[in-house]
Design a protein that fits this description.
This protein is α+β, with helices and mostly antiparallel strands. It is 31% helix and 29% strand. Bound molecules: adenosine-5'-triphosphate and magnesium ion (MG).
Length: 358
């Protein structure tokens, strides 16, 4: 039986492991932390920094390696890639870890982005803010997630404070995009070059954290988003599931960032599409034919942040699917999600109101 190695053992690894089982594919995770949601369903090897033995053990036990987070040391990724196929590649990881390189990649492929400047000093911050005007958004180039490591600057007085908060890290200053809505596009490519694209998903964030995703989201820019992501996959010679987050402003697509992995905005595909993003990723990295991405109806994925709603109440809703990650509840932490599926969009949106009030 083939074993796929996964770097990271959080909820994405957990759902990848669950999707691999029916295909007769085993998984094994490598984790750098003590709390590992994936450990309920698959083996997890704990690795401390520079623990070459744990790394070797892991690599020896798997045929192919993938990730649930792009934020892994590149040196580490290089060591793995020297022994086993690694998807995404070291080169793609390097780009996806760095908001600056990501935006440069988008631009090189004629994909719109917000205006941006790399920032490495208070002077460069002042200069860039003058060019972009206010509001603008200062972000750490590396290791940001769920809106962490970001500050919206509204006036000159904000510059010093933001510099004191974030100045020790490499930074990027972006123009603020007055978007009408946010969407993401998820696609997959296998080793043979077969590509399958999911329909556009609409995403709503609160305090920088994804709260709700709806799909399929019918929008005239769907086709352009698909073309852009398809070109990126080919350009990167990419294998696996890949996600691009876009803003839509003035009927224009503006790419925000990409993720070389399964994505929170694709959780609806578990019940709402012919093939889930997790199974699709496993298929892609194992060089199997990709599945249909056709949506089954309308789906709404509701992230459970801080705590899980009452399971009995959720399961009493027709078409509701409950997913707990078995994580210690903590404010601003994604601890699970609920997906509502149905034929009637308005009915599903109505059901979501019940969940919001739980
Ligand atoms: N330039 C911008 N203009 C307007 N809003 C922005 C901008 N950049 C980020 N945001 C808002 O903040 C959210 C989080 O930003 P971003 O996706 O860049 O960071 P992140 O920490 O990687 O988030 P996530 O982990 O949820 O993807 C965006 O989805 C958007 O709502
Ligand atoms: Mg984002």
């Amino acid at each position: 039986m083939k074993t796929v190695g996964i770097i990271g053992a959080g909820q994405l690894a957990r759902m990848l492991a669950l999707a691999a089982y029916p295909l007769g594919i085993k998984t094994k995770c490598l984790s750098f932390t003590d709390e590992n949601p994936a450990s309920d369903v698959t083996d997890v090897i704990i690795c401390r920094e520079d623990d070459n033995k744990a790394l070797k053990d892991f690599v020896n036990q798997v045929e192919v390696v993938t990730i649930e987070t792009e934020n892994i040391p590149l040196e580490f990724a290089k060591k793995i890639a020297a022994d086993k196929p690694l998807y995404p590649s070291v080169e793609t990881l390097a780009i996806a870890q760095d908001r600056l390189q990501e935006k440069q990649l988008f631009r090189s492929q004629n994909i719109n982005t917000a205006e941006f400047f790399p920032i490495d000093s208070l002077e460069s911050l002042k200069h860039a803010a003058k060019q972009l005007g206010f509001p603008c958004v200062l972000k750490t180039r590396f290791y940001g997630y769920d809106g962490k490591g970001q500050a919206v600057l509204t006036c000159e007085q904000d510059l010093m404070h933001a510099w004191q908060q974030l100045g020790e890290h490499p930074l990027i200053l972006e123009s603020f995009v007055p978007f009408e809505l946010e969407v993401s596009l998820i696609a997959a490519r296998n080793l043979q070059g077969q590509i399958e694209v999911y329909p556009l998903t609409r995403n709503e964030h609160q305090n920088g954290i994804l709260r709700v995703s709806q799909a399929p989201y019918k929008h005239p820019l769907n086709e352009l988003a698909q073309t852009q992501v398809l070109n990126l996959l080919k350009h990167l010679n990419y294998v696996g599931v890949f996600t691009v987050e876009f803003f839509i402003a003035n009927n224009t697509l503006i790419a925000n960032e990409c993720a070389p992995r399964v994505h929170n905005s694709g959780h609806w595909t578990i019940e709402g599409a012919d093939t889930s993003q997790f199974e699709q990723h496993i298929r892609a990295v194992c060089n199997l034919p990709l599945g249909s991405t056709k949506p089954k109806g309308f789906s709404l994925m509701h992230n459970c942040i801080g705590h899980m709603p009452d399971i009995e109440k959720i399961l009493a809703i027709p078409g509701a699917h409950y997913h707990t990650y078995n994580k210690t509840p903590r404010a601003s932490r994604k601890v699970g999600h609920v997906t509502l599926c149905g034929e009637n969009k308005l009915e599903v949106l109505e059901q979501d109101k019940q969940i919001t009030s739980m």
